[in-house]
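Narrative of activities, Objective 1.

The group set out to show that a structural description can be obtained from nothing but a protein's sequence at a throughput compatible with the screening campaign. Below is one input-output pair from the validation batch, recorded exactly as produced.
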Amino acid sequence: FQIIFTSAYTTLVHATTNQTVDVMLAFLLMAGGVAGAQYGAKAGQRLRGEQLRALLALLVLAVAIRLAIDLFVTPPNVYSLSGVDPT
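Output recorded for this entry:
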């Protein structure tokens, strides 16, 4: 339990000192994680074990298929990063 506070403090100090962590993105990810954990806990209570295992298997298969596609399909421009234009 104590490691949560230590990790949070260390991450915050590292982010403010080096400006290498996007704080807004980190807060959005934390909020999504909290909401997802609550939703997942409620869904876990309503579904049977077999259904949960089937959903997990589908998720693992979807990730494996995505990784296989990304492994064999060459992107149009290998040396570019796309993102939001800040202007």
